[in-house]
Amino acid sequence: MSDTPTQLFIGGTWTDAADGAVLPVHDPATGETVRRVADAGAKDARLAEDAAVRAQEAWARTAPRARSGILRRAHEIVLDRTDALARLMTAEMGKPLAEARGEVAYAAEFFRWFSEEAVRIDGGHGVLPDGRTRMLLSRRPVGPCLLITPWNFPLAMGARKIAPAVAAGCTMVHKPAPQTPLSSLALAAILEEAGLPDGVLNVVTTSRAAEVCEPLLRGGRIRKLSFTGSTAVGRLLLAQCADTVVRTSMELGGNAPFIVFDDADLDAAVDGAMIAKMRNMGEACTAANRFFVHRTVAEEFSRRLARRMEALVVGPGTRDGVDVGPLIDAAGRAKVEELVADAVRRGARVLTGGRTPQGPGCFYPPTVLTDVSPDSALMSTEIFGPVAAILTFDDEDEVVRRANDTPWGLVGYLYTEGLDRGLRVGERLETGMVGLNTGLVSNPAAPFGGVKQSGLGREGGRVGIEEFLEYQYMAVPIR
């Protein structure tokens, strides 16, 4: 960790904030300050934007194979430094080391995937129906981009945005979450080592997001915003993008249903529930939020899930044998505490967990609630914590209606042994992604994103690079 940069990365140079401000980074397992990094202001943001704009033309002309080679080298360096990067993530956001190592592999795969997509950008050629004009279609980078990433997957979310931008030929200003700046700075250092030219990637760590981002979005030189975060913040950013018609990709909040039918393999369903609920301590937009279990199997499913959740070991992510690390901060834990308390006041039963432990750190125990009232706040709120809320249902139409009764539509999960039912229900869910008999949908080779208020556009997969490309049509008369 001592080798991780703590300065801003602007135009290929590591530099302090113009006003000398610094931002403390806290370990959520202890509350202690682990490092201090530069805290950028508006002047730093303008310098980063200037660097990205200056670099754009030359970077767009760079050979696709050269861009591909940089991404492939970054992939190899990230994997070579798995342990150091994992420990860095655990220190700044708390996830257990085993999960952090998994995220390093996940992040690295975005660099490999888009290294392959970089050399597959193509256009088209044809003759228009009148027979008098040839049509030439070419693809070109959209231009300088602002990338805003969250704290819950700090390495992977950076890689998921940076890799396709590099592949497409776009320059970038990257603003990571203030809770987890170290992972992003480490990533910038790796890309610098991999040969990324000066100014292509600029990283501004800051606690002053509005001061840094709004002028960039309203200024007219940033042509693309890619944001991952809450729906509320996403709405504000969309409004700021309207003035200069900035192209946007938005990966926003979720309220994922997890449906267990009466014919489901309960062992498999519980396994899937543990992944969908407990990945990253439940601090994931893809986390299962509302468990709808058929009335005939609800008691058994709840019992098995509670037993599995109760067996999880809670503690600092660096400690051997720990399954569940701390939540990101005191505010995040307080939100989970209040959601559980509200559900209990409305009649929910606590099968396991539900009590905040004493001592330092932002820990909260894995919790299972049954008899949850549909009016409970956690039914209409993204929990972002290790809480499984179970409700029962009786028939297919009912559960589809209830699952879709939300402004969000990122992902849904369903378990059934009937393929016809699985496909039928999956197609009726108003979500951008569906896990059928699986609790994990995220993969760099698949398009990630939602519908309704869960976002705009897709990241990953073959379509991921499309978000950073424009079409140009050229008409050529036939002589």
TrEMBL record:
<protein>
    <submittedName>
        <fullName>NAD-dependent succinate-semialdehyde dehydrogenase</fullName>
        <ecNumber>1.2.1.-</ecNumber>
    </submittedName>
</protein>
<comment type="similarity">
    <text>Belongs to the aldehyde dehydrogenase family.</text>
</comment>
<dbReference type="InterPro" id="IPR050740">
    <property type="entry name" value="Aldehyde_DH_Superfamily"/>
</dbReference>
<dbReference type="InterPro" id="IPR016161">
    <property type="entry name" value="Ald_DH/histidinol_DH"/>
</dbReference>
<dbReference type="InterPro" id="IPR016162">
    <property type="entry name" value="Ald_DH_N"/>
</dbReference>
<feature type="domain" description="Aldehyde dehydrogenase">
    <location>
        <begin position="14"/>
        <end position="472"/>
    </location>
</feature>
<dbReference type="GO" id="GO:0016491">
    <property type="term" value="F:oxidoreductase activity"/>
</dbReference>
<dbReference type="InterPro" id="IPR016163">
    <property type="entry name" value="Ald_DH_C"/>
</dbReference>
<dbReference type="Pfam" id="PF00171">
    <property type="entry name" value="Aldedh"/>
</dbReference>
<keyword id="KW-0560">Oxidoreductase</keyword>
<dbReference type="InterPro" id="IPR015590">
    <property type="entry name" value="Aldehyde_DH_dom"/>
</dbReference>
<dbReference type="InterPro" id="IPR029510">
    <property type="entry name" value="Ald_DH_CS_GLU"/>
</dbReference>
<feature type="active site">
    <location>
        <position position="251"/>
    </location>
</feature>
